[in-house]
């Protein structure tokens, strides 16, 4: 991913800037990848303490939705949309909603000071947290997808596509969540925005698109999770069109790069006031 | 080692909205001037809202001042706030960033984010946890610890990855005496071995009196006094307080005791006298020898505490630097 700001790369102008004569030697700067790995590992370990909200709630919600929709949709394209939508909804719940709340609270409580007084590149903090939250979605998304396939009688053959859908949709939604959480002036607003984003992913992703009015369909096209849903849904077909799947995934990846870059900028802005 | 000149920060006025009254413009720091020397423990003392935290945020590069300069070890922190993180370690009042980590991982991660490689971060983590007696708690998440233990764990994280300046915002809040002692001996060890400097924000005047080399008293964003704790106490009052507790009644047949009666504040068997140091010494000599001693139950001789200074200088009971 190319969301690394230029000044954190070794050898760039800032990294070699020398302090004024007579000044004491500065401590080392934390480099991007090691500190990213450290943040990722620390964030990942939070799942041990906050297991239920981070890993289970989203899965229960998605499975519940699929059971509800069981009697409503037919077995063809609509069922595929419901299963794909419910699976990506897990990603939206955790990566967008929970991450927005996490950063919103961290910012409001002064928790960002901890990172801001360490010589760590902003991208490492944002990418580490986003990566961890995207990882939290893996078990829930897989469980939801398998359960959905069994429930609606869909083929399990192409479920491997989740290995691309989760990280790419995860990057897009986690970037969005982090940016919302860091930009929201108050933590309640961050929570609200995260909830709204997740509700949008729920309504626009799970409900089959061809029954929607034109305006709603346009909104659906603006939401990054839609492309993850579409990519996943296409693979249920007898002969999936892989070019379209790749195209959808590329949109997710592109949005991910942009939103993570925005989130990194937002972190910088939030850390020093 | 750390020079602050003319540091000023004004929070803009906030217009009132429904439910929230308007607040006028506030000068959080007003032309603050400080000089912190290498290897000293320098304290910031003052009532709530005096501007201590704002000042610390400006020194740690977390907030840009409106005007003035901060120079730490030759680096201009106002122009290069990002350098602060490479010179100092900061222990803030909030632990939310670390709350869901285990003590061990919180310390290790902080060390890695201070630029240590995995091996060094782990070695320093083990050393610091051992030094502070936290090893038995290493596997517990901070969230599950008591307030004082959590604070100690955050202090441990601040120590991993050596820094020449430690900025500690009320580090010992909620700690038991054992933990407090661990904190101060860890600080002392770093000071003796590496000349570490400490900037301490505190409310605990008793602790301030015992650990600080020098202290600045802040009020409404201004430094109104800056001296050693003893020097400050002298500024407030040069008098010494003598408490005499008699067995049943004061031995008024002793002429020296009878002469003191007019100047004493009596409360039951207790006499409290405010005297000059010389006079106090004479009084103590009198009552601990001769006839008066037989009637004496207990006595104390005390200089005014930093708490007297704090109360005399700060907050609503503003009395300024007048002699009591």
UniProtKB/TrEMBL annotation, chain B:
It holds the Pfam family ABC_tran. Its main location: membrane. Residues 14-245 form the ABC transporter domain. It is a peripheral membrane protein. Keywords: Antibiotic resistance, ATP-binding, Nucleotide-binding, Transport. PROSITE patterns: ABC_TRANSPORTER_1 (PS00211), ABC_TRANSPORTER_2 (PS50893). The keyword NAD does not apply. It is found in: Cell membrane. Coiled coil: none annotated. The keyword Transmembrane does not apply. It comes from the Bacteria. GO terms for molecular function: ATP binding. InterPro entries: AAA+_ATPase, ABC_transporter-like_ATP-bd, ABC_transporter-like_CS, ABC_transporter_ATP-binding, P-loop_NTPase. SUPFAM superfamilies: P-loop containing nucleoside triphosphate hydrolases. PANTHER family: ABC TRANSPORTER ATP-BINDING PROTEIN, DOXORUBICIN RESISTANCE ATP-BINDING PROTEIN DRRA. This is ABC transporter ATP-binding protein. It comes from Streptomyces levis.
